[in-house]
Design a protein that fits this description.
There is one protein chain. By secondary structure, this protein is an alpha/beta fold. It has one domain (about 25-215): 3-Layer(aba) Sandwich (Dihydrofolate Reductase, subunit A). The protein has five helices and twelve strands. The chain has helices at about 25, 60-70, 80-85, 125-135, 150-155; strands at about 30, 40-45, 50, 75-80, 95-100, 115-120, 140-145, 160-165, 175, 185-190, 200-210, 210-215. The strands form three sheets. An eight-stranded mixed β-sheet has the order 6-5-4-7-2-8-11-10, with helices on both faces. Strands 1-12 form a two-stranded parallel sheet. Strands 3-9 form a two-stranded antiparallel sheet.
């Protein structure tokens, strides 16, 4: 899977990965309601599609962490249990909805204020809770922050993507799901100068879903 060289802004990403089992191919169009807060995927993706090694990120990019903070501040975050535990703490200024099948999951393990952490045991319940919290917070987006299984399960519901394409190809057990890129329109691309502590070069690229049908 190669995702590092999408076409320019406004072009269909026909050279991107495609597959018959891709969640995005199953959902080439979605119903978008003006009364609902849009779901936006945030992910950092290597050239080979890797997003994690099963324990966390396979790179150190402080600039991307700052970018993540800017994008997600003041918004509810949907994430799986393993992603939550790999972060290891509550993210200030945001609310986290942990999606897990583990009924014994203890949200207080993340430390801090437990009223900033919510738990959902089913996807539909997680989406409904995220909508309620986003509207209560006055947020313009709901952030889908991973991991791989949750991206694959919910990518069909996403209207936007804020992706960081990282110019490395590490080994890793977790990959971003296959996408029919022709369903997505690139609307912004920035390639910042890496800081001294960044381990790789990268680009911040934003996408909107092409076929978003109005209710």
């Amino acid at each position: 899977m190669t995702v590092s060289n999408p076409p320019g802004i406004g072009e269909a990403m026909e050279k991107g990965p495609q597959g018959p089992d891709s969640a995005a191919k199953v959902w080439p169009e979605i119903w978008c309601s003006p009364t609902k807060v849009p779901l936006a995927i945030v992910a950092a993706i290597a050239e080979n599609g890797v997003i994690g090694d099963g324990r966390g990120l396979p790179w150190n990019l402080p600039s991307d962490l700052k970018h993540f903070r800017r994008i997600t501040m003041g918004k509810p975050l949907l994430m799986g249990r393993k992603t939550f535990e790999s972060i290891g703490r509550i993210l200030p200024g945001r609310e986290t909805i942990v999606v897990t099948r583990d009924r014994a999951f203890d949200a207080s393990r993340g430390g801090g204020q437990t009223n900033c952490i919510h738990v959902a045991y089913e996807l539909e319940a997680a989406l409904a809770l995220a909508q309620a919290r986003a509207q209560a917070m006055g947020a313009g987006e709901i952030i889908l922050a991973g991991g791989g299984n949750l991206y694959e399960s919910l990518i069909g519901h996403a209207e936007r993507m804020h992706l960081t394409f990282v110019d490395v190809a590490p080994r890793g057990a977790v990959s971003f799901p296959e996408i029919d890129w022709s369903n997505w329109l690139e609307v912004s691309r920035v390639r910042p100068r890496p800081s001294a502590k960044d381990e790789a070069t990268f680009a911040f690229v934003d996408f909107d879903r092409r076929h978003c049908l109005s209710l």
